[in-house]
Amino acid sequence: MANDVSMNDKDVVLSTIQGGSPGRRPVALLSGGAWTFRQRGLSLQEALRDPERAAQIIVETNEIVRSDIVWPGSGYHNLAIQAIGGKIKYRVKGTPDVTEPLIGEKIEKIDLSRISDDENIASLWKMTGIVHKLIGHKTLVGSSTWGPFTLAGLIFGVERLMYSLYKDKAAAHAILKLSTELAVKYLEGYIQAGAKILSVAEPTASGDMISRKHFQEFALPYITQLMAWIRDQGVLTFLHICGNISDRLSLIPESSTEVLSVDFKVDLKNVRETVGSKIAFAGNVNPVAILKDSSPDRVFVEARRCLCEAGEEYPFILMPGCDIPPDTPLTNIETFINAVKKSAYVFQERSKGRSG
């Protein structure tokens, strides 16, 4: 794989997704919002109060880490639930939790326009715009949201949603239609701020939670609608589903996503063989057992293993298998990125030496 030294980090990702051969693998963190602010001792709630400072921290941290993609706004997905009436609780470190869904609310009374008026969400959009202005020319700037199925569980209550899949399909589809519209409203501001790739996270749609049949009937149609809308805005699409999705891999190319990100539970060789000729794929170093809890040497070995399993001829982005814990050592993140970039740098230096 010959390196094109004229390409910046953003170009490498874009070329890979579009089926090109940029000369090295793209490598990036997945989300990383809570981790990034933790490097400066800030919680997500504290960062939210000062979007200018938060944006600067994202940029400065990535100057050290050198992730090809940054995701301002990641970690804050549950603010959308709060904006429409749900209750959330911030953690000292980590992402906020939904403590009370809108179970008692009638769908027709849920006002999605509250997303546009929410000061916290406006702060996220502003943060994204500043990051895009500062580094968007060289680094791919994106953001993320929960997918429709996961949002539906947070609005409706997961247990109630699961019951409706069997006993009240009309209610399930009604709430999924609403949650898709909610995701659109939430993402509109990120697009206006300059985000060029949007990640849709669907942990509740994994094989650990629902069957392949229910995924195909209830999750996939609404993921597809959302992805199609994102692509219509001229923005790249990225789908991450936590857990084991081996039994539904063949369905994913139907979703209109351009990149599928998989959990560490999924065999990358299987992903490669099932979707690698149709869409780009990403993953899947274990974010806890490897990136947080292992030595730098082990991180390097696991990253290189993933690169090997993905195969050189397939469009692949090296990433963690999920968001990284806030306490993940910086040294391990640098080692993870260098599993690609250090070898690419060495290759470039040797090439320069031969040409000289």
Key words describing this protein structure:
356 residues, 9 strands, single chain, alpha/beta, two-stranded antiparallel ribbon, disordered C terminus, 51% helix, seven-stranded parallel beta sheet, 15 helices
C-alpha termini separation: 21 Å
User: Which runs of at least 5 residues are low in confidence (pLDDT < 50)?
Assistant: 344-356
H and E string: HHHHEHEEHHEHHHEHEEHEHHEH
Structural class of the secondary structure composition? alpha/beta
Report strand %. 5-15%
Helix content: 40-55%
Care to count the β-strands?
9
- The gyration radius over C-alpha positions equals 20 Å
Mean pLDDT across the residues is: 92
- Spatial ordering of strands, largest sheet: 1-4-5-6-7-8-9
Instruction: Count up the helices.
Output: 15
Anisotropy-based shape: globular
Q: Tell me about the largest β-sheet.
A: 7 strands, parallel
Q: Mind sketching the topology for me?
A:
Blueprint: H1 9-17, H2 33-38, H3 44-48, H4 51-65, E1 69-70, H5 79-83, E2 87-89, E3 97-100, H6 114-117, H7 119-135, E4 140-146, H8 148-156, H9 158-167, H10 169-193, E5 197-201, H11 212-232, E6 236-241, E7 259-262, H12 268-275, E8 280-285, H13 287-292, H14 296-310, E9 316-320, H15 330-355
Helix pairs in contact: 4-7, 7-10, 8-9, 8-10, 9-10, 10-11, 14-15
Domain Uroporphyrinogen decarboxylase (URO-D): 10-342
Pfam family, one: URO-D
Organism: Heliobacterium chlorum
Could you explain how this protein is built, in words?
The protein is α/β, with parallel strands linked by helices and 356 residues long. Helix content is 51%, strand content 12%. It is built from 15 helices and 9 strands. It has helices spanning 9-17, 33-38, 44-48, 51-65, 79-83, 114-117, 119-135, 148-156, 158-167, 169-193, 212-232, 268-275, 287-292, 296-310, 330-355; strands spanning 69-70, 87-89, 97-100, 140-146, 197-201, 236-241, 259-262, 280-285, 316-320. The strands form 2 sheets. A 7-stranded parallel β-sheet has the order 1-4-5-6-7-8-9, with helices on both faces. Helix 4 crosses helix 7. The protein is globular. Mean pLDDT is 92; it is low at 344-356.
